[in-house]
């Protein structure tokens, strides 16, 4: 019931927001709308905080000594394509659920300044409802134990994301960016749907437990693997399927950027672990050199492209492509340390990248209303606290020791180096390049004489500080004590890879 409550509470919050009355528009509508907006924001924030608190109970009670699903809840056979609709978490999905519930209170606080207008008094109601619906759908992606249901929720996430970018985006190209996000993911996922339907036809079920005991022919696996991988390559995203990402980030509202970087990209990590490595192990081993080649190209190309960016939201978005390329290197390294490193790096990136988007996409943009880097200089003159946080997260993004990014990147690169030293060496160039663009951005924005294009401003306020500080604390904790994550995922990852290696041995013999 603990896991079920994590799903129900956002739905309750969604219901409370939907019944919040809207006053008629009159001469005093400004005051009424303002009060309604605050009530709706408080309901959404409190709901997300309660959900996060319950997910911490989930984390505390989790038993890391077994690879089996825990906190399971069965809904019976009420759905025609799911023989026994069940939800649950194991070591692989646990931290993705916690990361999801953690980032939604951050998203609500980050977008607190969004207000309704006289002509559109339901703006905040629609906005917060969209975010709460997105939270439910994202949680369901990580807790369902049926392949068809995974696909349904994997695709359903697109709808609220499309609305977030297309309606509340901050630029004139937001509709185009929303359609690119929608079409890229939808078209890529059609191939995954064909693979899932084929698996269901031959195995007779899409339940994870049934599929774990069903062995698919090696040559047939390769065809199914390609269908699923196309969808995951778009979500990572890997070269050359990345063009939707930086456009969506640049146009999205701050909550959209936080959730895109923090959670949505991690759906590819989870999907690769749950489908490609678990159910198509021989094909994953066969295509590992191909995936690592694409990952290395993504790391190098995205890092070099980042150095040329003039929009700082696009710069942070391109850096995400490079980091997720390293995650792909670890995932398909066929080693325990590589796979565990990919999970740790995914979690660390889910903390650092949202913080950078908050700093440049909300703190700076709200004050100066431009994302063009060349207009900024000498911000430390009036914003010393901002500059300290900006420095800390810039070097964390570059993967310095004592941060979660460093632990994750080292494990991923060690795993890929053991499989192929050339790939590991080329992938490590991303560390140098990420340091180059991170330090350049920080130095350009922070130091020097104060820019003549910028007006006088104030440092970060209490709300912005409360958004950024938890992200920083968790980044340091993950860097100093990575075993709090690794110990809980080790059994699940080891079981997954042990089954892969055992299966490969059986095939070869």
Describe the overall structure.
This protein has 509 residues and is an all-alpha fold. The protein has one domain (2-450, 457-508). 74% of the residues lie in helices and 2% in strands. It contains 20 helices and 2 strands. It has helices at 2-18, 29-61, 91-110, 123-143, 147-156, 158-168, 174-203, 208-212, 218-235, 243-251, 254-264, 266-279, 281-306, 312-331, 336-368, 384-397, 404-419, 421-446, 462-480, 483-508, and strands spanning 70-74, 86-89. The protein has a two-stranded antiparallel ribbon. α2 runs parallel beside α4, α7 crosses α10 and α15 packs across α17 (404-419). The model is unreliable at 23-31, 117-121 and 501-507 (pLDDT under 50).
Structure described in brief:
The protein has 509 residues and is mostly helical. It has helices at 2-18, 29-61, 91-110, 123-143, 147-156, 158-168, 174-203, 208-212, 218-235, 243-251, 254-264, 266-279, 281-306, 312-331, 336-368, 384-397, 404-419, 421-446, 462-480, 483-508; strands at residues 70-74, 86-89.
Shape: globular
What percent of the residues sit in helical stretches (DSSP H or I)?
A: over 70%
Read across the widest sheet, the strand sequence of neighbours is 1-2
The number of distinct structural domains comes to 1
Question: Tally the helices: what do you get?
Answer: 20
Uncertain residue segments:
23-31, 117-121, 501-507
Say how many strands there are. Answer: 2
Distance between the termini: 45 Å
Structural class: mainly alpha
Run of helices and strands: HHEEHHHHHHHHHHHHHHHHHH
Mean pLDDT across residues: 84
Q: How much is the radius of gyration in Å?
A: 22 Å
The largest β sheet comes out as: 2 strands, antiparallel
Strand content: under 5%
